[in-house]
User: Fold this.
Amino acid sequence: MQRDLPPLNALRAFEATARLESVSQAAQELHVTHGAVSRQIRVLEDDLGSALFRRQGRGLVLTPAGQRLRDASAAAFAQLRDACEQLRGHAAQTPFVLGCPVSLLTRWMIPRLERLMAELPELNLHLRPQEIPFDEALTGLDAALLAAAPPWPAGWHVFPLARERIGPVLSPRFAQTHGLLHSDPSAVLGQRLLHTASRPHAWQSWMESQHLPMEKLHFSQSYPHLYHLIEAAVAGLGVAIAPAQMVADDLASGRLLAPWGFQDTAAQWVLAVPSRAPTSRLMPLATWLEAEFTAHEKLPAANGQR
Amino acid sequence: MQRDLPPLNALRAFEATARLESVSQAAQELHVTHGAVSRQIRVLEDDLGSALFRRQGRGLVLTPAGQRLRDASAAAFAQLRDACEQLRGHAAQTPFVLGCPVSLLTRWMIPRLERLMAELPELNLHLRPQEIPFDEALTGLDAALLAAAPPWPAGWHVFPLARERIGPVLSPRFAQTHGLLHSDPSAVLGQRLLHTASRPHAWQSWMESQHLPMEKLHFSQSYPHLYHLIEAAVAGLGVAIAPAQMVADDLASGRLLAPWGFQDTAAQWVLAVPSRAPTSRLMPLATWLEAEFTAHEKLPAANGQR
DNA sequence: ACGACCTGTTAGAAAAACTCACCAATCCAT
DNA sequence: ATGGATTGGTGAGTTTTTCTAACAGGTCGT
Assistant:
């Protein structure tokens, strides 16, 4: 049978008090009031059944019993501190592996990476390109950044970052651009529409949201990745449909135009983590990403003009 | 600057779980539910920022980080356990010194001492004869047993045990006894009244409570201690006035009679302790004494006949 | 496939810890 | 000596933590 340990928090209060020979200073070190420390010491004395301090005037003197306990607890706590220090240090320098689809990585993450590293230097972020669908257990990842619609796989914990919003984009260099700029959304019907196998329903869902018929679409070549699709649009090969965030920088620089704005989809941009992962390193990243994503909410809403 | 310790209670839960390789068994050892342990481990993992267990089927496996922490915490806790064990053991075998006036000691405590020692063997009780008034700090005592009226000195913590009740007692061998047995309390007026310097007001307060005049009292010799007073009564030298508890055994055995019962005084029998003494060894004694004192409440009340 | 067994999770209840405000004692500077 | 500053102790009330109870989901053995 296991012998009983004393109340550990009381022991911590005692150790600090014994080391500093002052209740008040110990309270300061432990970030509590002196009353709390005084009480904890009382609890410990009561538990052990012997006085640990002699109250002498406005100070304290350790009793022999107190001295022995101080030595033991100081050593024990030092050992625990060392071990935890080591673990924490090791955990801190382990890279935080973030899975991310190549399209997002290329067009959104990389332009922001330097700033992210500067603002969260402790994170030691490593990006791992990885396409949707993600492994259910997120094997080898500390987190994944992706756009997806609920329901989420069991075993994920999901931080919503922003609604996904998509819309048609085209280059100023595209031959028909001038005629399209002030037209209805229906004007896209006759254009060369670029699309990607990774988002086969993008045009369909946008057309539905605009109440346009789908039969008259003129699909051009299909691109394997969203990344290529957007590059094709930038090159003026036709009208692409893309999530707002992934063309934000191109819109800002004028390389792309979005005459009909963007439209919410059922999907969201989320940060997904295995449900029982430690949260301490996660929260700063989640916060940063959310801020960065919502900073783009200033992009034109659906039907907005640019 | 002091580095931070991990949450200690969480660490204790982890240590038990790691040692037993089971959340459920650890919960059993710690006398909590498995949910509590599971949660504590989660808190610790979160605090340290690294997983300590790999959940594998219905069991647990320590991660390398967990193993290191287990070794460190097992050693640290063992050290603390040892030290506290030693302190507790030392405290337990230190005698518990109970100050007690000789009268009470002789006539009440000693007859019950064997039973007390048998029922509270861990207490290691030492009686120290000591007369009222007691030192305000109760120097050298763990507690004091005495009859006194409030207010109590500052720095005492007082466990009330029973009201003090006093009444006249006399021996069957006393010459006038037969005539007194069925008389009014006023019959004492003409008798030889025994009294003691240690309680000069005893007769006075009793007479007042009976609404009898005090002028006609025939005081006999004064005895230095209550103890002698009672012995004088037993010897048939006159009528003594004594607290109920101190003649209880004599009444039971017939060596003394209390024809007019007993009367509450302003005083109480109390167990007094220095206010910041540890309570763990105290409570069993206080409980035992209270039970023993109130067991005598069955003695005849004031005006009751015997 | 089923029950036995184990761990994780949640809301709400219970317990522990803390703060605040006060007191008493001591020390120190005037 | 006296009044202010500092220190420790205490009690009431509140906040925070921890625990329980009940359920969910997975794995193992039969």
Summary: Chain B touches chain A through 48 residues (CB under 8 Å). Chain B is about 40% helix and 20% strand. The first strand of chain B starts at residue 53 and ends at 56.
